[in-house]
Amino acid sequence: MITAAPPPLTRRAFLAGTAGLVTLAGCAADPAPTAPAATRPVTHPLGTADVPLAPRRVVSLDSNGALQVGLEVGAPLVASETLDGAVTVPGYLPQPPPGFTSLGFDQLDLERIAALAPDLVIGNVQRVEPAYPELSRIAPTVAYENAGAGQDWRDAVRTIGDVLGARDRIDARLAEYAARVEAVAARHAATIAGSSVALLRFTGSELRIVRGEIFGASILAHAGIRRPPSTDTPGGSATYVSLGEETVGVTADADVLLYFVGGGGSARDAADTAQRYLSGGLWAQLPAVQAGRVVELDPVAWWDGYSVSAALACVDELDAALARP
């Protein structure tokens, strides 16, 4: 069951009561005395944590990687941040286990986390770092780098799988993904060789060319998709290029346009943005639009995805898009 998160607690109030909360939460979760769990040291970007070899109560502070990989490998997730929007847990994943609690989106509530009595907390660096000392008092806490820090999503997924004690399973899933990408690339080799593809995202305020280490863009790169020159602006490390209604014409060098509407915390009003651009005169003049080589994609998989399951969903959509005449 997914429940709504209450208003977050201030850090000052949390620091005043952390010890008591942890003690009470631990008693509520398991009143019988138990032997100390076997652990192993895990070094991560924020320090070192003694992680249980077989965690039993995992809290994820990431609605992308940790949540998705956790569900993918059947980790004992008691709670996690979830996606913002109509879809809180992607449909391409196994459903959360019974008793699972949603922590909302970008709402760090330290008191609530302590009350869940986790034996492992995991999340990306951006989410964990501001409260790492407090979280480490609650349970062993591990942070990992994601695409926002330029990390290849496959490496991040391996790291998460390793922390959760499921590295072998993740390696097998990644091998499955690699084979699937290779098959799609071979099937559409002529189309890929003769076409350039731009991946676009409509946000609540603008249109963006998606590129770099961002999840969806990396899927295209793995399949050998060639980007048009317009996506190389403004530089090699940028993850997106903003396009105003008057500059959408720069994508005229793309033979195929793949786009999705929304995704992430800035998804609000994205449909209105898309309608504004898609009904504009400049959009209608784009060669890919006139040739009918424009395909709308699932924003949950292409933007919010961060797992092998998400990648396979993207490859399926890419396969269908490349098969269109």
Automatic annotation (TrEMBL):
The protein, known as: Iron complex transport system substrate-binding protein
The keyword Endoplasmic reticulum belongs to this UniProt entry's keyword annotation: no
Membership in a protein family: Belongs to the bacterial solute-binding protein 8 family.
InterPro entries on file: ABC_transptr_periplasmic_BD (IPR002491), Bact_iron-sidero_bind (IPR051313), TAT_signal (IPR006311)
GO cellular component, one term: outer membrane-bounded periplasmic space
Location, primary (coarse class): other
Keyword Cytoplasm: no
Top-level taxon of origin: Bacteria
Domain Fe/B12 periplasmic-binding per the UniProt entry, residue ranges: 56-325
Keywords in alphabetical order: Signal, Transport
Signal peptide: 1-28
GO terms classed as biological process: iron coordination entity transport
Entries under SUPFAM superfamilies matching the protein: Helical backbone' metal receptor
Transmembrane residue ranges: none
Pfam families in alphabetical order: Peripla_BP_2
Subcellular location: Cell envelope
